[in-house]
Target: 16S rRNA (Guanine(966)-N(2))-methyltransferase RsmD
Amino acid sequence: MTRIVAGSAGGRTLQVPRNGTRPTSERVREALFSRLEHLGVVSGARVLDLYAGSGALGLEAASRGAARVTLVESAKAAAQLCRRNAGALGLGERVDVVAAKVHTYLAAPPPAGTAPADLVLLDPPYDVTEEDLAAVLALLAGDAGTAGTAPPAGAAGTAGAGWLAPDAVVVVERSKRSPEPTWPAGLAPVDDRGYGDTAVWFAEAVENRG
Model:
């Protein structure tokens, strides 16, 4: 059973896809959001939840007062579940769900009227390679040409621009067995934490000086 930890929907249960996702544990989410709230980047934030799965991370942010949350999930069934979860929690008016591959979504310019994100949450599934993750981070930072990685097979290689607000915080969650992500020039690592078998890295958007 997966639940929202705190906020307006605290204690409410989330539906979880039967396979293909691994929702962030409540313990990790509680510790992660405690850290993010200490940094002051949740309440009123514009949030991107990439590889959303059940939407647990993004919906936790919405429950804790994020102004707008976009959940990006490639599996159509999981994306539909994200919509149902948002509605059931009473958060649907502040949550958008996009059924698309993360790399494809970021390779295009942000949709018209989309404000840059203050907080980006990435919890990639196990089959996302380190190279694929590096390419996604580069697109997010508008720095695909300098990341030293190729885009995933079949994906466009054009960098999206304008995804991140100044001083945006980017969070990557992976297995503790995974190496630290390859950060592009537009993102500077600032912290890392370990929670059991889970590693979490924090980075901040910085001016890309090339």
In short: The longest strand covers residues 164-175. Residues 146-160 have pLDDT under 50 and may be disordered.
